[in-house]
């Protein structure tokens, strides 16, 4: 083994290495929140505590850490699925849904239920009752990027 790898293994052989690793991962979660590193930090902390309580070899510590990582990330995902975080703006990433209620202008006549409307500085496809170019219509819904409209 090279000197760098021997240094890492020596650090992991001591329970303090795992605990320091756990603290660094927890700090990483605070700096770059993604709700992922905290679960890996938990696995590292438990591995460090087990290494403190029982004299286990480095390969066994690594195996324990890998298993705990899988278990803690799986448990964290289940917990967040069961306890979703409420958003202050649930339509933040759903631009079409945010347009419901807006009055827009028809730029390509709605013929046989299909046409195009101007929304802000863009043009969107739409479905709705026939309307001539220049008519004002209200957005009532959206299916993907196609707006549903009705006469305003």
Helices and strands in order:
Layout: H1 3-13, H2 15-31, H3 37-53, H4 58-82, H5 95-98, E1 103-111, E2 114-119, E3 122-127, E4 136-143, E5 146-151
Helix pairs in contact: 2-3, 3-4
Pfam family, one: NfeD
GO cellular component, one term: plasma membrane
Subcellular location: Membrane
State the domain count: 2
**Uncertain spans:** none
Find the count of extended strands (DSSP E, 2+ residues).
5
Rg, rounded, reads 28 Å
Distance N terminus to C terminus? 75 Å
Strand order of the largest sheet: 1-2-3-5-4
Mean pLDDT score, rounded? 87
Instruction: Report helical residue fraction.
Output: 40-55%
Largest sheet: 5 strands, mixed, barrel
- Would you list the SSEs in sequence order as H and E? HHHHHEEEEE
**Number of helices in the DSSP assignment:** 5
Class of secondary structure makeup: alpha+beta
Q: Per the principal axes of the C-alpha atoms, what is the gross shape?
A: rod-shaped
| Strand percentage | 15-25%
In short:
This protein has 152 residues and is an alpha+beta fold.
Please tell me about this protein's structure.
The longest helix is centred in the middle third of the chain and has 25 residues, at 58-82. This protein has helices spanning 3-13, 15-31, 37-53, 58-82, 95-98; strands at residues 103-111, 114-119, 122-127, 136-143, 146-151. The chain folds into 2 domains: 3-82, no CATH class; 95-151, OB fold (Dihydrolipoamide Acetyltransferase, E2P) (Beta Barrel), CATH 2.40.50. The chain is rod-shaped and about 80 Å long. The chain has 152 residues and is an alpha+beta fold. It starts with a helix and ends with a strand. It is built from 5 helices and 5 strands; from the N terminus they run αααααβββββ. It has a 5-stranded mixed barrel with strand order 1-2-3-5-4. It is 49% helix and 23% strand.
């Amino acid at each position: 083994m090279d000197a760098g790898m021997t240094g890492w293994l020596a650090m992991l052989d001591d329970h303090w290495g795992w605990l320091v690793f756990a603290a660094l991962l927890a700090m990483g979660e605070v700096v770059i929140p993604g709700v992922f590193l905290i679960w890996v930090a938990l696995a590292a902390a438990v591995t460090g505590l087990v290494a403190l309580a029982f004299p286990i070899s480095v390969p066994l510590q690594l195996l324990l850490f890998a298993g705990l990582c899988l278990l803690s990330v799986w448990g964290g995902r289940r917990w967040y699925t069961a306890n979703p975080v409420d958003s202050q703006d649930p339509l933040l990433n759903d631009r079409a849904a945010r347009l419901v209620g807006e009055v827009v202008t028809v730029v390509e006549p709605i013929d046989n239920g299909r046409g195009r409307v101007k929304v802000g500085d863009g043009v969107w496809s739409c479905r709705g009752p026939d309307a001539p170019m220049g008519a004002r219509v209200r957005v009532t819904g959206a299916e993907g990027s196609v707006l549903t409209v009705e006469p305003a």
